[in-house]
Amino acid sequence: LDGVRVDRLDRDRLAEIRNRKIGFVFQGFNLLARTSALENVELPLLYARDLKEREARARAVEALGLVGLADRLDHQPNELSGGQQQRVAIARALVTRPAILLADEPTGNLDSRTTVEVMALLQHLHDSGMTILIVTHEPDVAAYAQRVIELRDGVIVRDEPVASRRTTAATVADAGGTR
Question: Residue 98 gets which letter from DSSP?
């Protein structure tokens, strides 16, 4: 993974690799309820022993800015919309600067307009060089990918490039623009 053989690593080293090399985005956001957006995003950095508190804070602020939430640093999850909560979750996944982003149904709890906004963000990250793996049951979401691997009963039944990848620019216009 990112140049490191992981097949023989012990549990502690694997946990460190997961923390530093893989960002996780969940359908249910998994944000701490009575914790600010900034503190939620800083959470994965608590395990980065070589990172000073000031650097961790700066990275969290940067990640929230990247997802368009620089003005919501001190807001708790209940003060944010579903789309904003998902963007906090994405910022939390990005704060460690991972090589891979794993997103499990990242738009499953979002309306169609916010889905387009989140997919625009993920496309931007991919276009910037990040590897992104999205798990989805939604063909509309899969249409944003460059490649679709379809599983049925644990078996790959299809693995092919997307013939005409949906771009977010056209879709944002169709959804009525961004917020």
Answer: -
In sequence order, which residues have a C-beta less than 8 Å from that of residue 130 and are 6 or more positions away?
A: 98, 99, 100, 101
How far apart (Å, rounded) are the C-alpha atoms in residues 66 and 63?
A: 5
User: Is the pLDDT assigned to residue 101 strictly greater than 60?
Assistant: yes
* DSSP letter (8 states) at residue 167: -
Contact 4, 13 (CB under 8 A): no
CA 104 remoteness from chain centre = 9
User: pLDDT by residue (tens digit) across 128-166?
Assistant: 899 999 999 998 899 999 999 999 999 999 999 988 777
Which pTM value belongs to this model?
A: 0.83
Question: What share of the chain has pLDDT > 70, as a percent?
Answer: 93
Domains defined for the chain, CATH in brackets: 11-134 (3.40.50.300)
- Give which of 51, 52, 54, 32 is closest to 41, Cα–Cα: 32
Instruction: Convert the pLDDT of each residue in 160-179 to its tens digit.
Output: 998 877 776 555 445 445 43
Q: Output the CA angle 117-119-120, nearest 5 degrees.
A: 65
| The 100-104 sheet, strands edge to edge | 22-25, 100-104, 131-135
